[in-house]
Specification:
The protein has 213 residues and is mainly β. It is 12% helix and 37% strand. It has four helices and 14 strands. The strands form two sheets. Strands 2, 4, 5, 6, 7, 10, 11, 12 and 13 form a nine-stranded mixed sheet that branches. A hairpin with a 6-residue loop joins β8 and β9.
Length: 213
């Protein structure tokens, strides 16, 4: 799974990479410990334009009566996303990109797991594959929610964890966002091994991750 990630690039860098216009995203400050249920920037395609908009990380199916009405769906498995009732419609029509500068995984025996930092070797933001859903409560405003799509780990991640987020290459952004026709399913595969580097987290980062966010 992918349960924590980092955003350290400014919105300007995101806008440039994704060729998108930022919306009302809040303070432009580094977030080295992004946690589930927090508001995160998400790239969507809307009527021919790409926008960066805030969403809750934690997908809420339309049948949830409250945000805590079922499991916290922060990830969607690539192998079953087209079949699961929670994600099936979103996988077809509501795909998104979730900007990140890296993510975290834990390895080791239970009770003594060590946090690892996984980053792109080239630095800068990358686009994690995501799906999104607008959730409407009985009362109050609608809420946009998202989940990160995961797949089997590549050779870099496999010694640490058996899963990793799907990373979409810039040349495939249009296909994943539904701007370039059909065939996005082929993008749900492990990232090339040369793309990423992984290392145990230092003491400061471990202390940061011990907190929720």
């Amino acid at each position: 799974m992918c349960g924590r990630y980092m955003i350290t690039s400014p919105y300007e860098a995101m806008a440039q990479l994704f060729e998108a216009s930022p919306g009302e995203l809040g303070p432009d400050a580094p977030r080295p410990n992004v946690s589930p249920t927090q508001s995160v920037p998400v790239v969507v395609s809307h009527e021919g334009d790409r926008l960066i908009v805030p969403m809750r990380w934690g997908f809420l199916p339309h049948w949830y009566k409250a945000p805590n009405d079922g499991p916290l769906l922060i990830n969607a498995r690539a192998e079953t996303i087209a079949e699961k009732p929670a994600f099936r419609a979103a996988a077809q029509a509501r795909r998104c990109l979730i900007p990140a500068d890296g993510f975290y995984e834990w390895a080791g025996p239970k009770g003594a797991k060590v946090a690892h930092v996984i980053r792109p070797r080239a630095g800068g933001p990358i686009g994690l594959a995501g799906v999104w859903q607008e959730w409407r409560p009985k009362e109050g405003a609608a809420m946009a929610t998202c989940a990160i799509v995961t797949c089997a780990a590549n050779g870099v991640l496999a010694p640490i964890h058996d899963r990793m987020p799907v990373i979409i290459a810039p040349e495939d952004f249009a296909l994943w966002l539904g701007e370039a026709g059909t065939g996005a399913a082929r993008l749900m595969r492990p990232a090339p091994e040369e793309m990423l580097e992984a290392a145990p987290a230092d003491a400061e980062t471990r202390a940061l991750l011990a907190r929720r966010g």
